[in-house]
Amino acid sequence: MALAAIPLRCRCGRVQGEVGTRGTYARATCYCNDCRAYAQWLGVPGLLDAAGGVDVVAMAPSQLRFTAGVDQVACMSWSERGIHRWYAACCRTPLGNTPRDPSVHYVGLSTACMEGAGAAVDTAFGPPRRCLVSTASATGPVRKRPLGTLWGILRVAFGLVGARLRGRRASPFLDASGHPIRTPEIVRR
Q1: How far, in whole angstroms, is CA 128 from its chain's centroid?
Q2: 76, HSE (Cβ side, Cα atoms, 13 Å)
Q3: Adjacency order of strands within the sheet including 64-68
Q4: Which segments of 17-171 does DSSP mark as H helices, in order?
Q5: I need a labelling partner for 70 at 20 to 30 A (CA). Which of 15, 54, 178, 185 fits?
Q6: Which residues pair with 29 in a beta bridge?
């Protein structure tokens, strides 16, 4: 797998990796209550924008590779049926969100784990705030972008269908049998 030179790194540097750009579905800012609660649960400053949104890159998990610190990759979920939220246990840097169903080839990769890449993130994945999700839950004013959001949703849908048709399953968050590499900690709110 040839990956672009977009580095992935947690804040303390123990978890490292690379992020490819070919399997990108869309870049989005999500304002949902769960994403905001997750950022607050992590306790890391600067994860939320002024209106309570988090910046993610929706992509194929096969474009993500850990090169160090896999032992520090942890998982939590709000419920037994909720999505898996992955983070670096060493410094609580968010890594990404994955569905519980391993057949859905998707990760919402947090741009917080790509901070060292600088402008390369915008160049590779497009500018933030083009696709806005759950704006009704925003904690501040947000300029809605219905066409950008629709386009982002369509890109994710086409990416998921394409991955399913090609039989893509590889994910650094799953073992060879398709189970999470860590048992998700269920956190009650």
Answers
A1: 14
A2: 18
A3: 6-9, 16-19, 64-68
A4: 33-42, 119-125, 146-166
A5: 54
A6: 55, 132
Sequence-distant (≥ 6) Cβ neighbours of residue 62 within 8 angstroms: 1, 20, 23, 105, 168, 169, 170, 171
In tens, the pLDDT along 76-88 reads: 999 999 999 999 9
pLDDT digits (tens, 9 = 90+) for 7-66: 999 999 999 999 988 878 889 999 999 999 999 999 999 999 999 999 999 999 999 999
Q: Tokens 């399997």 sit at which residue? A: 23
Residue 144 has a CB neighbour count (10 Å cut-off) of 11
How many Å separate Cα 123 from the centre of its chain? Answer: 18
Per-domain boundaries in the chain: 6-186
Q: Count CB atoms within 10 A of the CB of residue 77.
A: 19
Q: How many Å apart are CA 85 and CA 3, to the nearest integer?
A: 23
Pairing between β-strand 185-186 and β-strand 73-77 as defined by DSSP bridges: parallel
- Fill in the amino acid letter for 130: R
Residues 4, 183: Cα–Cα separation, whole Å: 30
Q: How many whole angstroms separate alpha carbon 134 and alpha carbon 91?
A: 28
pTM of the model: 0.90
**Helix, strand or coil, per DSSP, at residue 139:** coil
HSE (side-chain half, CA atoms, 13 Å) at 110: 28
Residue 18 φ/ψ, nearest 5 degrees: -135, 150
Class of domain 6-186: mainly beta
